[in-house]
Specification:
The structure holds two protein chains of two kinds. By secondary structure, chain A is of the alpha+beta class. Chain A is built from 15 helices and eleven strands. Chain A is about 50% helix and about 15% strand. Chain A has a six-stranded mixed β-barrel. In chain A, a hairpin with a 2-residue loop joins strand 7 and strand 8. Chain B has a single domain, classed as Rossmann fold (3-Layer(aba) Sandwich), CATH 3.40.50. In chain B, strands 6-7-8-3-9-10 form a six-stranded mixed beta sheet, with helices on both faces. In chain B, strands 2-1-4-5 form a four-stranded antiparallel beta sheet, with helices on one face. In chain B, a hairpin with a 2-residue loop joins strand 4 and strand 5. In chain B, helix 3 packs across helix 4. Chain B is globular, with a radius of gyration of 17 Å. The termini of chain B are close together. The chains are: A alpha+beta, B alpha/beta. Chains A and B meet through helix 1, helix 12, helix 13 and helix 15 of A and helix 2 and helix 3 of B. Chain B: GO terms for molecular function: ATP binding; ATP hydrolysis activity; transmembrane transporter activity. Chain B: Keywords: ATP-binding, Nucleotide-binding, Transport. Chain B: InterPro entries: AAA+_ATPase (IPR003593), ABC_transporter-like_ATP-bd (IPR003439), ABC_transporter-like_CS (IPR017871), MacB-like_ATP-bd (IPR017911), P-loop_NTPase (IPR027417). Chain B: Pfam families: ABC_tran.
Chain lengths: ~425, ~230
C-alpha cells in the first residue's frame, strides 16, 4: 500500500499546486533557517579529533595576580608564560608535549612574478605533529635537535606549498622569511580542524596556519606573536628577553596522556612544578592547575558561541511557526478532500488506512520542503561565509550527515504538522459528505 | 441477508433532537431489488447509511449476512463495507484525478488483492457497464450517465453481497436514467441484490419490491408482501 499511498500523495500534491507549493515553502523556510543555525552549532561543537580527544590535554597553571583570579569565579589563565611553556617542555613528563603560539612573517617567493605574502605561522615543538596527527603529503616534522637548536626549518601547509612550489615535493627546498632561508622538511596534505581547538585564542574557526616552525625561533629570531598577550604585572626589566621571562601569558601547551594514571601523574608533576616555582617567588595564588581534554577545553572556552545557540533556538521557534502555518494549510487541503475521504471510507478504507495515506502525503510534502530547505540552508551558509569570511572557514558547509538530518527533520516536522489535519480528515462523517458531493 | 429490527436513530445537537428512524424494520433477501421511497427528511437516506455501515444506530438490531453489526469496531465495519457492500451515489463520487481503471480499483486496494486479480476484476466490471474501452479516460471526459456506470462498475468490482444505491439516477436526464436503471436491472437479474433509494416512483415501480418510508418508519410494505415480511427478523 505504501507505493499506492505515494502515488495518491503525488496526485494530491499536483491537484493543488499552489497550496502544495505554499506548504513546501513554509517547511523549506523553517528547515532552511533551522539547518543554517544547526550547521553552525553542529560544526562548532563537533569533536575535532575523535580518536584522541580524550588523550589530549590542555595545561593551565595559575600564575596570575594574587589579588584577583584571571576570570571569575576562580579560573586560572587560559595560556602559559613563555617560561612555564619552555620549562614544561624541557621536563618531558608526558608521553608527548608541545608548547605553541601563533606568529606571522612575510614569505618571499623565489619564483619571479610571485608576490610576497603574509603568512601565519605556528611556533611549536615537533611533538605537535604526533599530538595532532596532521596528514603529511611529503616529508615529516623536524627533529628533536631542530627543536633544541631552533634550526630554520618549516613544515608547509598544502596551500602554501601549492602557492610556492606549484604542489611539487618541496622537501629539501628553502623558502625565504625574515631575510633567512628556511628548509622545508615536510608538507601537509589538506588539514582543517573544526574547530581549530589547539589554539582557540586566535580564533577557533580560523584557517590553519601557512606553516609550522620550531618554537625556539620565538626566542632566537624574536619572532612576533599573534593573539592577545595578557600580563598581570609588568616585565622585570627592559627588552625582549625580559618580556619573555615575564608573567605575561601568550602560549598554549598540550600534552598526550593515555590513561587516568598518566593524567594523575602529570597533575602531580604540575603541582610539584608550581610548588617549586613558588619557592622562587612566583605563583602567588593557591594551587589551581587544570588539565582539560579536548571537549572539556572547548566547553571551557565556550567555543560554541552563545549567540549561535540563541540563533539556533530562535530558528527552531521560526520552524515551529512555519509548521503551524503548514498545519493550517494541510487542514484546508485535507478538508477540501473530504469527498474523496468519505468515498474511500464508504468503499472499505478504515480510519487507519486513511491516516497512513495522508501521513504519507504529509511526508512527501516534507521531503519537498526539506529539499527546498537544504537549498535555502546552503544559500544561508554562503551568506554567512561572505559576511564572516575566514572567521568561519570550513564551518559553513553542509556535509552528508547534515543533509540527512535536514531531510529527517523536514519529514518529522511535516508528519507532526500533518498529524492533526490527518486526524481531523479521518474523523469526517462519510455519510454527510457523500450526499453533498 | 440484511435484517433490521426496530432500529432507531436520533440526531442530537445541544438544543435539538431529530428522530431520523424509529422502530424501523426491514428484511432484504438475496436477489431482491428493493426500492425505498419517501419524502425528503423521511429517513430513507439515514436507513441507507445505516444499512451501508456509514452511520451507527441507537437502538434495535441490524444483522448483515447473519451477523450483528452493533458492536463492531471501525476496522471490522470497514472490512464489511469493503467485502459485502457496493455503493452507488447520486453524484457518482468518482475521484477526478484517477482514470476509470484506478477509480474502479479503489475498493479493491483495500481488499489487499494482488495486481493480476485486481486487473481482471476491474476489466470485467468495466466490461459489464460497457466502458471497457475507456479505462484510461478521466471521469471529466465522460457524460453523467457514463460516470454513473463507472460508479456501478466500482461497486460491482468487489463482488459485493448487495448494492446500495442512493438516488442513482438523480443527476441524470431521463434517457441516461433509463439506461442506468436498465443496467441495474440486468445486474439484479444476474444475481446481485440491490437496495435503491429514489424519489422517482416510476423507477421504484421497476424494482421487485417497493418500500415507502415516512417519519422514520416503514409505512407501506412491499407489493410482494407475501414474499417478504418487513418484521421477519
Amino acid at each position: 500500500m505504501f507505493f499506492y499511498y505515494c502515488r495518491l500523495a503525488w496526485l494530491s500534491i499536483r491537484r493543488n499546486p499552489v497550496l502544495s507549493t505554499l506548504m513546501m515553502a513554509a517547511i523549506a523556510l523553517g528547515i532552511g533557517a533551522a539547518m543554517t543555525t544547526l550547521t553552525i552549532n553542529y560544526l562548532m561543537s563537533a569533536n575535532p579529533i575523535p580518536g584522541k580527544s580524550e588523550q589530549l590535554f590542555y595545561v593551565q597553571l595559575d600564575s596570575w595576580d594574587p589579588n584577583q583570579p584571571y576570570a571569575e569565579p576562580n579560573e586560572p589563565p587560559d595560556q602559559l608564560t613563555y617560561r612555564d611553556a619552555t620549562n614544561l617542555k624541557e621536563a618531558r613528563q608526558a608521553k608527548l608535549q608541545a608548547a605553541m603560539t601563533q606568529s606571522a612573517a612575510v614569505i618571499e617567493p623565489k619564483e619571479l612574478g610571485k608576490k610576497p605574502f603574509m603568512a601565519y605561522l605556528r611556533l611549536t615543538h615537533n611533538d605537535f605533529f604526533e599530538l595532532f596527527e596532521p596528514p603529511f603529503l611529503y616529508g615529516q616534522g623536524w627533529s628533536d635537535e631542530a627543536d633544541k637548536s631552533g634550526r630554520l626549518t618549516i613544515v608547509l601547509s598544502k596551500k602554501t606549498n601549492d602557492e610556492l612550489f606549484d604542489g611539487a615535493n618541496s622537501v629539501g627546498e628553502t623558502i625565504t622569511m625574515m631575510d633567512r632561508e628556511f628548509e622545508v622538511v615536510g608538507v601537509l596534505d589538506e588539514w582543517q580542524l573544526k574547530p581549530r581547538f589547539y589554539d582557540v585564542t586566535t580564533g577557533a574557526f580560523n584557517s590553519m596556519e601557512h606553516g609550522y616552525v620550531p618554537f625556539k625561533l620565538r626566542e632566537t629570531l624574536e619572532m612576533p606573536n599573534s593573539g592577545n598577550t595578557n600580563c598581570w604585572k609588568s616585565p622585570d626589566g627592559e627588552g625582549f628577553q625580559a618580556f619573555l621571562q615575564s608573567e605575561c601569558i601568550n602560549y598554549q601547551f598540550w600534552v598526550q596522556l593515555d590513561d587516568a594514571d598518566a593524567e594523575q601523574d602529570y597533575m602531580s608533576f604540575l603541582n610539584a612544578y608550581v610548588e617549586q616555582q613558588k619557592q622562587l617567588g612566583r605563583f602567588p595564588r593557591p594551587l589551581n592547575n587544570r588539565l582539560s581534554d579536548v571537549m572539556e577545553w572547548m566547553e571551557n572556552q565556550q567555543v560554541v558561541d552563545d549567540d549561535a545557540q540563541v540563533m539556533f533556538y530562535l530558528a527552531l521557534m521560526f520552524l515551529l511557526v512555519c509548521l503551524l502555518n503548514t498545519v493550517g494549510l494541510l487542514l484546508t487541503k485535507f478538508v477540501s478532500k473530504s469527498g474523496e475521504i468519505a468515498l474511500r471510507r464508504a468503499v472499505g478504507a478504515s480510519r487507519a488506512d486513511l491516516y497512513w495515506q495522508h501521513l504519507v502525503e504529509s511526508a512527501l510534502i516534507g521531503v519537498g520542503g526539506g529539499a527546498g530547505g537544504l537549498i535555502l540552508a546552503w544559500l544561508g551558509l554562503q551568506g554567512i561565509k561572505s559576511l564572516y569570511g575566514d572567521n568561519l572557514a570550513g564551518l559553513a558547509e553542509l556535509d552528508l550527515t547534515l543533509v540527512a538530518i535536514g531531510i529527517v527533520l523536514a519529514i518529522v516536522s511535516s508528519l507532526l504538522a500533518g498529524a492533526y489535519p490527518t486526524w481531523r480528515a479521518c474523523r469526517i462523517p462519510p455519510a454527510s459528505q457523500l450526499k453533498t458531493q | 441477508m440484511l435484517t433490521m429490527h426496530n432500529v432507531s436513530k436520533v440526531f442530537r445537537t445541544d438544543t435539538v433532537e431529530t428522530t431520523a428512524l424509529q422502530s424501523f424494520s426491514l428484511q432484504v433477501n438475496e436477489g431482491d431489488f428493493v426500492a425505498v421511497t419517501g419524502p425528503s427528511g423521511s429517513g430513507k437516506t439515514t436507513f441507507l447509511n445505516i444499512a451501508g455501515l456509514l452511520e451507527s444506530f441507537d437502538d434495535g438490531e441490524y444483522k448483515l449476512d447473519g451477523h450483528s453489526v452493533k458492536n463492531l469496531n471501525d476496522k471490522a465495519l470497514s472490512q464489511l463495507r469493503n467485502q459485502k457492500i457496493g455503493f452507488i451515489f447520486q453524484s457518482f463520487n468518482l475521484i477526478p484525478d484517477l482514470n476509470l481503471f484506478d477509480n474502479v480499483d479503489v475498493p479493491l486496494r483495500y481488499r489487499k488483492l494482488n495486481k493480476a486479480e485486481r486487473k481482471q476484476r476491474i476489466e470485467h466490471s468495466l466490461e459489464v457497464v460497457g466502458l471497457a474501452n475507456r479505462m484510461k479516460h478521466l471521469p471529466s471526459q465522460l457524460s453523467g450517465g457514463q460516470q454513473q456506470r463507472v460508479a456501478i462498475a466500482r461497486a460491482l468490482a468487489g463482488d459485493p453481497l448487495f448494492l446500495l444505491a442512493d438516488e442513482p439516477t438523480g443527476n441524470l436526464d431521463s434517457k441516461m436514467a433509463d439506461s442506468v436503471m436498465s443496467l441495474l436491472e440486468d445486474i439484479n437479474k444476474a444475481g446481485t441484490t440491490i437496495v435503491m433509494v429514489t424519489h422517482d416512483l416510476a423507477q421504484a415501480e421497476r424494482a421487485q419490491r417497493h418500500i415507502q418510508v415516512l417519519d422514520g418508519k416503514v409505512t407501506e410494505q412491499d407489493k410482494q408482501a407475501a414474499v417478504v415480511s418487513p418484521l421477519r427478523a
